[in-house]
Amino acid sequence: MGANEHGVCIGNEAVWTKEPVGQGEALLGMDLLRLALERSRSAQEALRVITGLLERHGQGGSCREDPTPFCYHNTFLLADRTEAWVLETAGRLWAAQRIQEGARNISNQLSIGTDISAEHPELRAHARAQGWWGGQGTFDFAQVFSLTQQPVRMEAAKARFRAGRELLQQQQGGITAEGMMDILRNKESGICMDSGGFRTTASMVSILPRDPTQPCVHFLTATPDPSRSVFKPFIFGAGAAQAPQVLSPTFGAQDPVRTVPRFQTQVDRRHTLYHGHQKALGLMEREQDQGQQLRQKQRDLEREGLEAASRLLAGEGAPPSQELGGLFQAFVERESQAYA
């Protein structure tokens, strides 16, 4: 997931469909997401960038640093200040749904049915040619392109998707940043993952005001397991820069991502804050009293960030843009100090 200076936010999820997934090098979902953020000023423009890249280059390749490939296609949730879209893909083919009202979620499965706002021009012809759709009556994208026999991970995704939809519906009409953080921390639903070989790597919640004079505020954990992480505010501004504590190390020409065949060795890409956070999690699990004190420090720091964002969006004493740009760095430093 990510955001850009124009208030465009994108998240992606893995999905498996009837279209075969190629193991050869191609654009990953994360590549498509990053390129769309780099090249777009709106959610709809980002959608066009992704579908254009799919048409020219396709998607696929292994998403992890391991000799055994793990490959998939992608679904995307795209939003800006004024609109939102869901884009779901199967190889170079795709369908998109413009979200007109309410709340929407995605989770490792096709979810666009008959409410299709835009689609690949050959989508239905391809489905007919493959014998997946008879060509008459209603065209349901998820029904036509979903695998008949779902992998176990896809079955689990169905429950996670339903739980996410229900949690959003409970807050319908009053969704807040805090409410979204609570949903992302929900382990019972499987949204916050920490089992089965998968862990929620990092989390993001964004406030996108319709008023273009107000800044978008993005809360980022930059650490795994949001139930025990701090959402820290990031605002694009004059002083905005990458915080060195959350930059993964690089390994030059000998990086296993650069050498061929790729991923034959493994390196430690965990950044400084990640290491500190892992030690903090260990303390929380071993020492109850110290762990509770540390968790309280996390909560207090997050609350401070939420209150700062609330004051800013309410127009109460907005700091200079240079200070806004350094807000995330300041919170990262304070979190690092807490773990030290």
Tell me the Rg in angstroms: 21 Å
User: Which consecutive residue ranges, at least 5 long each, have pLDDT under 50?
Assistant: none
The arrangement of helices and strands along the chain is: EEHHEEEEHHHHEEEEEHHHH
Distance between the termini: 28 Å
| Total DSSP helices | 10
Number of strands: 11
Helix- and strand-based class? alpha+beta
Mean pLDDT: 93
In the sheet with the most strands, the strands line up as: 1-2-3-4-5-6
Main beta-sheet strand count, sense and barrel state: 6 strands, antiparallel
Range of helix content: 25-40%
Q: Based on Cα principal axes, name the global outline.
A: globular
What does this structure look like?
The structure is a single chain. The chain is of the alpha+beta class and 340 residues long. It has 2 domains: 1-148, no CATH class; 203-339, no CATH class. Helices cover 36% and strands 14% of the residues. The chain contains 10 helices and 11 strands. It has a 6-stranded antiparallel sheet, covered by helices on one side. Helix 1 (29-39) crosses helix 2, helix 7 crosses helix 10 and helix 8 packs antiparallel against helix 10 (327-339). The chain is globular and about 60 Å long. The model has no long low-confidence stretch (mean pLDDT 93).
Write the layout of secondary structure elements.
Layout: E1 2-3, E2 9-15, H1 29-39, H2 43-57, E3 73-79, E4 84-90, E5 93-99, E6 118-119, H3 123-129, H4 141-145, H5 152-170, H6 177-184, E7 194-195, E8 198-199, E9 204-207, E10 217-220, E11 232-234, H7 272-286, H8 288-313, H9 321-325, H10 327-339
Q: Would you summarize the structure shown here?
A:
With 340 residues, this protein is of the alpha+beta class. It has 10 helices and 11 strands. The strands form 3 sheets. It has a 6-stranded antiparallel sheet, with helices on one face. The protein has a 3-stranded antiparallel sheet with strand order 9-10-11.
